[in-house]
């Protein structure tokens, strides 16, 4: 009797479980998937901040140093140096003549602003000249003449806040007479604008899934 020989069965390789769609290896999320979730959440935060509504909110914040905690130009309420028509020229001795501040270009009736945050030290007249002075942190006092005060002594003010209006000039030099003292010593007030602003520490933003 002839024996029928069948060809050997072709063995098919078992598919790798990792290649089967829809079947995770375990119940835990893959590390790459977790990283992608965090990245997606971060992108969502960035897109919301860049949306038109976010741009409007950012534009509503005043561009004065009140938000940054620094110093501003007292005739504009914005950062940047003023136009000085008469420079700081301190005397060699306290009793000698000199110019203990700067004269800034400004017109009568123009609004005058606090150059930095502090407390109004004086608002009134000095030798018939309307005067406002502000005490700032760090032993700094700034003075503004001739300024008809819109604030009162003891009132807290922020950088860029309106403190009064420029009055008619009382000397041959027109404009705002702006002075500053540090621990009782006269300094050039324009140099205050070069001081770094105070930075407030902010809390980190929470990102879901982090």
Automatic annotation (TrEMBL):
Q: Cell wall biogenesis/degradation: present as a keyword of the record?
A: no
Q: Give all residue intervals belonging to the M23ase beta-sheet core domain.
A: 98-189
Region listing for Disordered, in residue ranges: 1-26
Q: Which Gene3D superfamilies match?
A: Glucose Permease (Domain IIA)
Superkingdom: Bacteria
Output the InterPro entries linked to this UniProt entry: Cell_wall_metabolism_enzyme, Dup_hybrid_motif, M23ase_b-sheet_dom
Matching CDD domains:
M23_peptidase
Q: Which keywords annotate this record?
A: Signal
Asked if the Swiss-Prot or TrEMBL record annotates the protein with the keyword Signal, the reply is: yes
> What's a Gene Ontology MF term here?
metalloendopeptidase activity
Instruction: Give a Pfam family name.
Output: Peptidase_M23
Q: Do you know which PANTHER family this protein is assigned to?
A: L-ALA--D-GLU ENDOPEPTIDASE, PEPTIDASE-RELATED
Q: Which protein, by its recorded name, is this? A: M23 family metallopeptidase
Organism of origin is Corynebacterium mendelii
